[in-house]
Amino acid sequence: MAMQIKDDAPYADFARRLLGLRRDAGMTRAVLAEKCGISAGTLINYENGSRIPFADTAVKMADALGVTVGEIMGVEEPDESDQKEAAVDRIRRMYGNRCARQAEAMIKGAEALFAGGELTTKERDDYILEMQKLFIFATETARAKFTPKKYRTEARATASRERLKEIDAIDAEIAERNRQSPEDVNPFLVDDYD
Fold this sequence. Notes:
By secondary structure, the protein is mainly α. Helix content is 69%, strand content 0%. The protein is elongated.
């Protein structure tokens, strides 16, 4: 049966690549699915663009098709916009469409904030670090509030504390670097001349 990929499918580009690579290899869906250890239905979802494989399945597909994982996933030389799209796609796959839309809105908001010339590089670095801290705090608050006690692990809490320590260390390093050479003064901001 002929595969119809909808243009608005979430992973249409991946689907076209996979379908083309499978056909070039002269493989049926059943054969590729068996070599990858997945069901034919799962492969159909990949080929119609509604899903993309996890990393381990992508490696098996690449091996079966005789290509690189980068080639099958279309990420050989990603530029900045490809990286953003890939990040949003990972979020969509892991957390759903609502979270992906929120991530896209956050990216647009951050781009608008940083493109406006309102923040110096130091201020942008500080902003990003503070947002990472807020994210970790929000994650921990949500876990404490919504995760049943029997599923809460000390390992997750420890990982969050370690990540906060890393962020604080980066913050201190940036502050020290800025004290040594305040080369990044935004001429459009009067406050920077004080």
